[in-house]
Amino acid sequence: MRFWKDGRGAQNACCSVESEAKALAVAKKLGIPFYIFNFEAEFKKAVVDYFLRELGAGRTPNPCVVCNPQIKFGLFLERAIKMGADYVAMGHYASVKNAQEKAKLFAGKDKMKDQSYFLCGLSQKQLNRVIFPLGGYVKERVYELAKKMRLPHQSHQSFDICFAGDYQAFLKKHLKLKPGKIVDLAGQEAGEHLGLPFYTIGQRASIGGPGPFWVVKKDLKKNILFVSNNEKDLYQKEMLLEKINWLRGQAPKLPLRCKIKIRYSVKSEAGTIRANGSIKKMVVLFDKPQRAITHGQSAVFYGKNGEVLGGGIIKN
Questions:
Q1: Which listed residue, 21, 232, 258, 270, has the most CB atoms within 10 A of its CB?
Q2: Which residues of the chain have pLDDT under 50?
Q3: Pick the catalytic residue: 14, 15, 64, 67?
Q4: 64 is catalytic
Q5: For this structure, is 162 an active site residue?
Q6: Dihedral class, residue 101 (left if φ above 0, else alpha if ψ from -120 to 50, else beta)
């Protein structure tokens, strides 16, 4: 899949010239057809424009959570089925199991590389057509097998945001960035920020003085970045969610006790999910306060044995 012209020169981007050449080499070695689907226009509209729009609105989006249901398991899956495929195999570290006509998504065996978090927006229709061959492996073993089979592969990591490359340069190119005041929670001016999209909740802010300081909130209308040198100000027990997706196709009985992950890089934590006036809106009450709950990030719900129950967008 070709996604984004600006990213094709980046050596370790998932849609780079290098990764495309490696995929072609694998196909030739295995003696299977190789096709290229150009989704650049669709990817820009569904993922890149969404990402920039959310940043401009003061939120911190996760583009992979949007890309998976709309592009990789959306457009790509539809194109593959039209070509006669029964299933598509993807390289995500996750697993799908079918039981009682329901497809269930589970975290991958490799807890460090598990990518089930990014798949929280998938539907039953999509899950029933996908295979994750790497779900039962750790990444080091996959490298060992690739070397043993003499398959061309990339041993380095991919970008967190594949299309951005130089993140600050990307934002400067695509967004109107307006410097503004940095203010502490007591109302004292502490410095000047470079533009609110550069910052996210919980981030260290370099402003000098008796730090360290962390970003605690943004005021988009006044273009103010609020910081605190007390890390406790980042913690809270409750969060609101919207745009909920349940992977089994229907909402479970609420309230629901489960584990919730508020961003990819943190552990899932125990909490209770309750309705908030709509099946697409929920409130989560954690057992323990969580650090840097961030507006725009995805919250993903995990049940027994690492099953992904669903997910939503944090509204706080």
A1: 258
A2: 8-12
A3: 67
A4: no
A5: yes
A6: left
